[in-house]
Amino acid sequence: MGFSFDISARDGRARTGVISTPRGEIRTPAFMPVGTAATVKAMMPESVRETGADILLGNTYHLMLRPTAERIADLGGLHRFMNWDRPILTDSGGFQVMSLASLRKLTEEGVQFSSHIDGSRHMLTPERSMEIQRLLGSDIVMAFDECPALPADRAAIDASMQLSMRWAQRSRDAFGDRPGHALFGIQQGGLEPDLRARSAEALRAIGFDGYAIGGLAVGEGQEAMFGVLEYAPGQLPEDKPRYLMGVGKPDDIVGAVQRGVDMFDCVLPSRSGRTGQGWTARGPVNLRNARHRDDPRPLEEGCPCPACRNYSRAYLHHVIKSDEIIGAMLLTWHNLAYYQRLMQGLRDAISAGRLELFAARFHEDRAQGDIGLI
Ligand SMILES: [Zn+2]
Fold it and tell me: What GO cellular component term, any one, is given (predicted)?
């Protein structure tokens, strides 16, 4: 069985469908929780699945340094290692090496860098990134690219995009023919429509199983990002999944789905779960705030997650203020469950041809703000 993408319904530019892989189906639009170091922090993999996630993201940069891709391969691959038998997408390491590693040296060949853990020297190239992602057993492999920080001048973005396209070809060549595994190319070009078009053209000529829109969510702001999403998804093949990397906040996701994006990943729901922030239909709630101290109501009425079913806002406030581990566990669970409910809502709305109404209600609910004091 191979890798395929079937679109079952469209509404405007939005689409809903299913990506089929030998390890299971991924319903789109899809949100992928981030399992950086072979774990979605504070969650058991079974619990991640219970929130409705079909696929996880793993980070090449972190895993190559610790415990190393070779060790994970010897232990049966990432799925077995972390006890997640469904699809896994791995990033290429390109973005994180630029944001986390030190003493970086970028050449045509790749990036040489020092580990942020112990200072050891490593080299990431398109070929090495493909090898690491194969050793991990990743189902969806990302091409190795360079993501320039914004703002950057046009000449720098152009040169970086062209380097990424040469690396995309090398990634394709090194990936080879692996039935059941997919390789995604990554469009670059910053906020420049013609550079994005040239990048898309180069990627289409190489040919990939899916296409990511890279180089966004790097500090440009929602308005600029939506500006790119007005045209970038349409530059990519219509019949392949489109993945917006590193996005985002719930309203970013809704707007991007309306503009034709199928896949997302972000640390936000899990990371904010560890800092006392709960995401609800009425926007983010800071559980550290003393207003919750005596509140017997759940974080979000009607949410089926354990945090909302079995605990009060007062309890969540208490365990978060006391730095108890269960605080991070419960809030992460709730946040991931909220994100997956949002994705299910988007999929249902697209299927029913009422995405605009869904989006209008989404914004109305958020505009109300959190429930008032009792
Ligand atoms: Zn909940």
Answer: cytosol
